[in-house]
Amino acid sequence: MSNHTTAKTKSDRAAWLQGPPAACSVPVNHVDHAWRLVLLGAPGAGKGTQAELLTAQLGACHLSTGDVFRAAKNSCNCELSPAMTQAVAAMKRGELVTDTTVLSMLKERAGCLSCLGGFLLDGFPRTVAQAQALEDLLKQQNVQLDAVLSYELPIEQIVERLSGRRTCSVCKAVYHITGRPPKKPDVCDHCGGQLIQREDDRPESIRVRMEAYQKSTAPLIDFYKKLGVLVEIPAHGSPEEIFERTLKILKPKTKQAAATGECCCCSSHKKA
Q1: What is the DSSP pairing of strand 174-176 with strand 36-41?
Q2: What residue segments make up the domains of the chain, in order of their start?
Q3: Between β-strands 119-122 and 36-41, what pairing exists: parallel, antiparallel or unpaired?
Q4: What is the pLDDT of residues 25-73, one digit of tens each?
Q5: pLDDT value at position 254?
Q6: Can you spell out the DSSP letters for the chain?
Q7: Nearest-10 Cα torsion for 81, 87, 90, 96
Q8: What is the pLDDT of residue 54?
Q9: Pick from 31, 61, 196, 252: most CB atoms within 10 A?
Q10: pLDDT tens across 61-79, in order?
Q11: Are 257 and 144 a contacting pair, CB within 8 Å?
């Protein structure tokens, strides 16, 4: 699912987005260390941006469960499996996709987890039950996680980031009043539409969401701490600064793998 000959080559993620029997068009080349990471972080912590930067740097595919569901919901010609049919039906009803359905979707794409290019898993797991199910699935694929990267940012800083967002009422382009302001106040640069603050981006709404996120994520954080794979990364500063912190944390793990002469998927190589 990934091509490591150059960071500029990007996988189409067909096997991930479409599921079996689709295949990615970009070939996978052997690498000394195929990264297998889980990304955690509250909305506004910058996890999505870090996923893009890490994908470009490491070559591993960004496997977002949200992307799978959006692709299935928006594609009329896509042949849906029973799990994806259930997921799309739930979304159309405005309901959350159940743990069972998400896990079934992941099992359908188990080949993406054992791909020699590695992965950055985003959006799963969200609960301890999902984390345990993921551990079981990875064992079946003879692979293991290198690390779980948890991007941490105080609630007040998240509120500041998200409450400053403005969205175009017409084309839905997103701005920030300080970080990425429009050329003309309250007017979209692209279409001239009015910029508005979404209800979800109001400070009071953000605090409610953050409290719910922290409550639900705390057990998951403890789970990965006990496994010894959790890495907490301060998410303040620019995306580039956060990225540099991430790479500094991952660098010793690369050296450790080189010292043992194994990559994280060596167990599958030995059994092959």
Answers
A1: unpaired
A2: 14-153+227-271
A3: parallel
A4: 776 765 668 899 999 999 889 898 999 999 999 989 999 988 888 888 7
A5: 57
A6: ----S-TT-----HHHHH-TT---SSPPPP-S---EEEEEE-TTS-HHHHHHHHHHHH--EEEEHHHHHHHHHH-SSPPPPHHHHHHHHHHHTTPPPPHHHHHHHHHHTHHHHH-TT-EEEES---SHHHHHHHHHHHHHTT---SEEEEEE--HHHHHHHHHTEEEETTT--EEETTTB--SBTTB-TTT-PBEE--GGGSHHHHHHHHHHHHHHHHHHHHHHHHHT-EEEEE--S-HHHHHHHHHHHHHHHHHHHHHHT--TTHHHHHH-
A7: 160
A8: 94
A9: 61
A10: 999 988 888 888 776 456 6
A11: no
CA 257 to chain centre: 24
Query: Is the Cα dihedral 23, 25, 29, 31 positive or negative?
Result: negative
Show the 3-state SS of 138-185: HHHCCCCCCEEEEEECCHHHHHHHHHCEEEECCCCCEEECCCECCCEC
Low-confidence ranges of the chain (pLDDT < 70): 1-11, 27, 29-32, 75-79, 253-272
14-153+227-271: CATH topology is Rossmann fold (3.40.50)
CB 95 within 8 A of CB 102: no
Query: Could you identify the residue written with the tokens 């920030």?
Result: 176
| Amino acid letter, residue 38 | V
143: which 2 tokens?
């692979």
Cβ atoms of 15 and 24 within 8 Å: the answer is yes
Q: Would you say 143 and 264 are in contact if contact means Cβ atoms under 8 Å apart? A: yes
pLDDT at residue 266 in the model: 40
- Give the pLDDT of residue 2: 40
Residues designated catalytic: 47, 126, 165, 198, 209
CA distance 1 to 61: 6
